[in-house]
Amino acid sequence: MTTAVYFDLDLTLLQYTDDFETIFERSVPDAPDGAYERYVEVLFETFDDLSSTPYREAFSAIVSEFGVDSDPNTLATRHHERELEATTVPESTRRALETVAARRPTGILTNGALAMQQAKLSRHDIGDCVDAVVVSNDPDVAARKPSTEIFDVAEAALPADEYIYVGDTYDEDIVGARRAGWDAIHVGDDGPAGDAARVESVEDAVARILG
Ligand SMILES: [Mg+2]
């Protein structure tokens, strides 16, 4: 019997050296008051609407509503670079991912924009060791966690008898995976305390999967 393993990307495999507001301020220096909050609001709305260009739409709102003197495409491109620069993959996480990928069908299942998520994988050289990458706002996927549809897409991409999902966000990752009939391992500290699925790290998750 085959068990496939999927990992969440942001804040599971990938960590950030700075918070999102700091990254935004590097992309839009001297942003007017309220611009960051509006950016976040539009970004999440467009993610939820399954837009393939959520960053450009969020920066378009900032330019038109706050009079920021720049082009939305320029801002989105700059932000893409600033966000990438603020990402890191701990060596212990990388080794754990490579260990499980050598032993089980393994994929990455992430909510995000296709170009941004692919750029993160390629910057940290972690896309090549996995067998499948499923990104919510890829027009060919067009479904976001916690909806069951994105887990169905992941199953089709990596046929197996059973699935395990490793993620940091309880309501999206753990609830979504279980609703799709998957086992789940939680590497975050949100959600109910005492859930048996919770572990401290990706290394611990992999030890549990292979143990
Ligand atoms: Mg995450």
UniProtKB/TrEMBL annotation:
Required cofactor(s): Mg(2+)
* UniProt keyword list: Hydrolase, Magnesium
Superkingdom: Archaea
What are the coiled-coil residue ranges? none
Tell me the GO BP annotations in alphabetical order. small molecule metabolic process
Classification via InterPro entries = HAD-like_hydrolase (IPR051400), HAD-like_sf (IPR036412), HAD-SF_hydro_IA (IPR006439), HAD_2 (IPR041492), HAD_sf (IPR023214), PGP-like_dom2 (IPR023198)
Look up keyword DNA repair and say if it applies.
Answer: no
**What Pfam families does the record point to?**
HAD_2 (PF13419)
Q: Show the GO MF annotations.
A: hydrolase activity
User: Can you tell me where the transmembrane regions are?
Assistant: none
* PANTHER family per the UniProt record, alphabetical: N-ACYLNEURAMINATE-9-PHOSPHATASE
- The entry's protein name is HAD-IA family hydrolase
Q: Say which species the protein is native to.
A: Haloferax marinum
